[in-house]
Please model this.
Amino acid sequence: MIIYGKNVVKEAIFTNRPIYHLYLDDKFSDHHFLNFLKDKKITYDTKPKGELNQMTDNAVHQGVVADVKAYQFQNLEDVIDEKKIQRFLILDGIEDPHNLGAILRTAEAVQFDGLIVSKKGQVPLNATVAKVSSGAIEHVPVILVSNINQAITYLKAHQIWVIGTDGATEKTYDDMPREG
Model:
């Protein structure tokens, strides 16, 4: 899978995502990023910008492109930890990779334990999602379920509160308990 952009690649390196090849623009000159790669002992090849554009379908890659192990959806059973209070965001039918990437950024910022998404109409975890997430895709599990109602039942059975949203409420997600 091809990913691109300095933050996305840097987060992939921090989380030890397998990187098969890393390519930098042959005119790349960000010394902080180059020192980061040197410190992490990450090797790379240089390519002309045109080749990087081809690899990314002309996306904004910042001169950094990597071929990495593909992102995978998680299973709900694998992320439940009954020893702590967990917070998940349940989404249904997210079809735009830009929206999913932005939601991932927000979920990481507010320290959610994962996103639960339905298989039906779900965008894949692709390079656009990774880029828009600015690396959050490395830190927030995305859990794929066949049926949202069954997932809610499973969460309740494991003592996880399920809270709906209402535009007229006076409470926010900050009012949810964080400690057990």
